[in-house]
Give the backbone structure.
Amino acid sequence: MALLFGLALLLLVIVVLAGAPSLGAEPPSLADLRSGKQLPPAPEIAGIAHWINSEPTAISDLHGNVVLVDFWTYTCVNCIRTISQLRAWDEFYSDDGLKIIGIHTPEFEFEKDPGNVLAAAQALGVTWPVALDNDYETWDNFENIFWPTKYLIDHRGRLRYRLIGEGNYRNLEEELRLLLLEAGGDLSDDPLTPAMEHLPDARYQDAVDKHVTRELYTGYDRGDFEREYYGAGFVGQRQYYDVPDRTLELDAPEYLEPDQIYFQGAWRNEAQRSLHAVETTDFQDFVALVYSSRTVNVVMSSEGEGTVRVRVKLDDRFLTDENRGADVVIGADGESYLLVDESRMYRVVESPQYAQRRKLELGVNAEGLAVYAFTFGIFAEGP
């Protein structure tokens, strides 16, 4: 998930950092970059609530090494897609002087919980140090504005490069190798790591009218911003935003406007999420939307005790082994459902190929299911 709502799924931007403390200033010359002159010192890691996989670590403690600082948060699908590349770099270059530091700056309140972050890090195979930047102090020190963003710091502790978003890994790795060589490393036996770029689905690439549903948020904080600047929120029912922090009885219309969220039943609109407010039967309450993508992911949690069963339908049919996401279970009776027992991103739909205007419906009976956000993918593999 990116902080700016309109961040593209493949934002392939490398920015060479400026020769002044402001990251937006005119970049230095190529000669200065290669020599390390006229470059700002890296901001320090500060205001950290908790460390995972490490004791507290400062950038100044790592002088002599090349440091890759990765700003991420564990429910951000864009961040998740970069983890495999980070693992490869950690494996290939740690003996050559590379140190990776993850700065986990939360998007949602539950992402501040060290237990949640630890569980996510273990599930994703994150073994490098992770600093929980719950108050955004390090984020602000780096003047950061996107998830994910990666910074390279040379062996003298100076900022050298910044990569925003996913992809373009080969360019960043080449710059990383140059910094390792500057630090005295020997890469003669170290080839480039295998390419791990995510390739778009073939049907998406061939589509004349290609379109991908943007990230959709249920909380009124994001919705009010959208309404103010773009005239409409993420939820298609306009009364949803009239009074915050209130339980609403909502009726989903027969026609669902594409790329909008709709609710059926009793839901409480909160700043970051929607909370199912009553216990029902027969999955008569639901959240639904019409989307265009290959994959769909949903950030959810359960406020009650135990596991919440969420019934999943695509175009009014249950999912199958061919189009279910990794977190969907197919029952013996053919019913498809999610078991929501953690606060995280759930992989719901992974269709064989890209398609437009599919209707997803998540039915719920239990009180306390919290729905935060929907994200979408058009890549041939992965979420």
